[in-house]
Design brief:
Elements (H helix, E strand, L loop, with lengths): L1 E6 L4 H5 L6 E10 L2 H12 L12 E3 L27 H6 L4 E4 L5 H10 L2 E4 L5 H7 E8 L8 E15 L9
Parallel strand pairs: 1-2, 2-3, 3-4, 4-5
Antiparallel strand pairs: 2-7, 5-7, 6-7
């Protein structure tokens, strides 16, 4: 089934309606962060610091963009391996970040956290960095600029194609 998900979402019911195997087109705001961003966000949570964005209602894409090309908000924007974020994902989910986009399998701790907090894990398609770049309407650094291309970014996306590989009930064709 094809679904549309607008971020930030307004109700957890929108997330619970997404089933494993659904094709999900994301529009709206999508944050980007890899392992160093996740590590810093986790430290900020542990130290009760203000976070650079509100987790509730939003999603994060595991991606490191290539340099910007003329006429595009970013260069190639394909997914990176999700397992590098696994040590941090359960804590971020506990604090409201329920939509994750990346590629590859997740560790059992993340699968359990997805079920516990009613999140979803959406798979982006490896090798489609140019396609994803076309779906990104704008990009800006939000925090951790010192990380260069791995800084925390805010994207505005339109019909960003993914497939749900882990739904809020823990159903998955892979895990």
């Amino acid at each position: 089934m094809e679904r549309r998900l607008v971020l930030p979402y307004e109700s957890i019911e929108e997330i619970k309606a997404v089933n494993a195997g659904d094709h999900v087109l994301i529009s709206g705001t999508l944050y980007v962060g890899r392992d160093q961003v996740h590590k810093r966000l986790s430290i900020m949570i542990e130290e009760n610091e203000a976070l650079p964005f509100i987790f509730k209602g939003n999603g994060i894409y595991y991606m490191g963009p290539s340099p910007k090309m003329p006429g595009y908000a970013l260069g190639a924007a394909g997914p990176t391996t999700s397992q590098r974020m696994d040590p941090y994902s359960p804590l971020l989910m506990k604090h409201g970040l329920l939509v994750m986009v990346g590629k590859g399998p997740r560790k059992s701790e993340v699968v359990q956290a997805v079920k516990k907090y009613s999140g979803i894990y959406l798979q982006a398609f490896g090798g489609c960095g140019a396609l994803y770049s076309e779906r990104i309407k704008s990009a800006e650094v939000v925090a951790f600029e010192d990380l260069g291309p791995e800084a925390l970014l805010r994207l505005e996306v339109e019909d960003f194609p993914t497939i749900c590989v882990l739904d809020s009930q823990g159903a998955s064709p892979y895990f």
